[in-house]
Amino acid sequence: MGFILRWIVTAIAVAAAVWIVPGVEVSSATESWVGVAVFALLLALLNMSIKPILQVLSLPITCLTLGIFYLVVNTFMLYLASWIATGLFDTGIVISSFGSAFVASIVISIVSSILSSVTGADNN
């Protein structure tokens, strides 16, 4: 049940980023919510599997930048999830520039942390 709740929280955060950030759009042949759901599923899976490895590998530079490089790792995860979603499933989120992805990663982080604390998804 914890992963499904995490997926829903991520989907809502991604939908907020698509709505707020210019340059982040849904690329879907079907409904837009399908693109957001597929992207959120891939992002949640990548955050559980690959992100901890990237965090450990980037720990020295994250310490030197006082944690700001962590946002670059989040941005890379967005790009990776977008590439996989559009490449394999022909649906997902299209990111136009690094700046858009950077702002979207900040929006997704803020919205998902607020929703996780409200729903209790971070207590798993």
From TrEMBL:
UniProt keyword Repeat, yes or no: no
Keywords associated with the record: Membrane, Transmembrane, Transmembrane helix
Keyword Transmembrane helix: yes
Protein name: Phage holin family protein
Top-level taxonomy: Bacteria, Bacillati, Actinomycetota, Coriobacteriia, Eggerthellales
Transmembrane segments: 33-50, 57-81, 93-115
Organism: Slackia equolifaciens
Pfam family, one: Phage_holin_4_2
